[in-house]
Please model this.
Amino acid sequence: MQVQSEKICNFAIECFRKVGMSEEDAKLVTDTMLVADNRGIHSHGFLRLPIYVERIKKGFINIHPNIEKVNDNTSISLIDGDYGAGQVVGKNAMDNSIQKAKESGLGLTVVKNSNHFGIAAYYASLATQENMIGIVISNVEALMPAVGGAEKIIGNNPISIAAPTKKGENPIVLDMALSNVPLGKILMAQTKEESIPKDWGVDQNGEATDDPNEVVNGGILLPMGGPKGFGLALLTEILTGVISGGQYSKTVHSMYDMEEKQSISHFMLAIDVSFFGELDEYVSRIENLTSFVKDSKKAPGIEETFLPGEMEFSREEQSKKTGVPIEEKVLKELHVLADSLNIKADF
Amino acid sequence: MQVQSEKICNFAIECFRKVGMSEEDAKLVTDTMLVADNRGIHSHGFLRLPIYVERIKKGFINIHPNIEKVNDNTSISLIDGDYGAGQVVGKNAMDNSIQKAKESGLGLTVVKNSNHFGIAAYYASLATQENMIGIVISNVEALMPAVGGAEKIIGNNPISIAAPTKKGENPIVLDMALSNVPLGKILMAQTKEESIPKDWGVDQNGEATDDPNEVVNGGILLPMGGPKGFGLALLTEILTGVISGGQYSKTVHSMYDMEEKQSISHFMLAIDVSFFGELDEYVSRIENLTSFVKDSKKAPGIEETFLPGEMEFSREEQSKKTGVPIEEKVLKELHVLADSLNIKADF
Model:
């Protein structure tokens, strides 16, 4: 289904306003969901609106957070997000990194006590608007085992790295989670009764399986690239939850756990490319690198080779013409939410 | 074969001295090879001594580099390595990052015009000795295709992230290249006449193959995790060769190309963990995270779950007792080198 962008956004903003969020914050959280759905990353789109609203109502997302610097220096800050919405805390943190990078070439902000912030690319891309490279890492609840383990001990922590290109053109944006695939892809195989590659997940005993049911029923997602992905997950956990002083690994809570605050940590780095030389020179090098990818010799049957983020931007362009693509099932849930908040949903 | 550490090191130092390198630099380059062989990372051990010597003789490695800061600020520097040995330039860069992090909590050094520097973990670990987290990235010559490509356009760039633990104990050290496996592993399958998983490499047309011969004869290594690994390779290329103003992607040269300088770029970040709070508190959190890994429930048949770097440190401890493990074939090559330099090799 395609929904008019203005209608769905106004609806989401009204939902957040109804549970007490400021208009500015409501617009920001809504924008991250819009961008996600428009780019085809539906797992982080309006699908999340009901759970965000629910967590605000429970007090697990603090709508009046006192976001404070715990420590601060020329190019580095530690921020306590006071359990604010991940989007609000996350943007605050990246804005801080960008400001520091404007003044000193480099800015790192580490944040504790935040929440789910949507797509990591949203924050990394803020840096590219200022001709900076953005690097964003977040921890999440434990979803993956150690190598050879049979227990969830580490998150499939998302990493986004975004680099600016020529003014007015899309940046190059990598945004990935550290599991081989998201759970959604295994659920889809289960629905279609298809087998899955043996490196997507293990059963509840930690044994390799090609049966999606075994993974879904008590099994565990596996890291991308085996020990490499596990290592990246562990070290990104240290760069977020461990150094921040927040929760980490098994003590981080899922947004679907309605008993506890999540306590997510983020790591947001901004590097000003003009520290290294003329911006024009950088842009011409990026264009050259881009041509290596786009003009590459192709394997048989392959028509195009893509830059990281390119397919997402192309979907976004399409969505801007045709409307926000949202699944019927999600729209139904949004109508249920509308009823519960006594808000009109005219989509 | 096991060789006495002192003998092989003195030999290597003498080789470097013979071709004009300072004693200090010769000791450093030798130490990186010793650490690599002792930890079982033989691809970066004394196997590389002959090619390093050869490249010094050709002038591709500058033994009297004028390592200079091109730009400098509180927490960030751009350094021109003047084609010095990668180890010399690399240590200089990480020392600079560490110094900045001591003063300001954070230090980033980006380096252009360097050479192959051995194992990335060597430099990331320098940071851990000062209770800092080290992040090291290097570019290398193009070895991998775009997704769906049939041409080498991007390096399997190494990434090392190292985190300090309790004083006197081994740090947690991830050190990985971005290809699924190194070429050596495919060569081994070729020797043993075994088939390989289809995600290790493609044939010369870019098509998936389980035949190691097809990869070795004009084929290409594949990135770990498919599009994710390709994306990481492209973005780490931007963080090194593109922003540094050095060579990048297809224009970086292999150390086995005897026509050109390599022109490698490095990215070296140091983050002082004490910026975020008491060191004791950090250490207790790291110990807790470590226990999550070590005490994890295991899959059937698995006796131990390991931290990143743990197996390498255990091999190193063993090697320190029994001698440096070096293959017979490599020892023969070192004897040939000894003859060519007119140096005695008593191992």
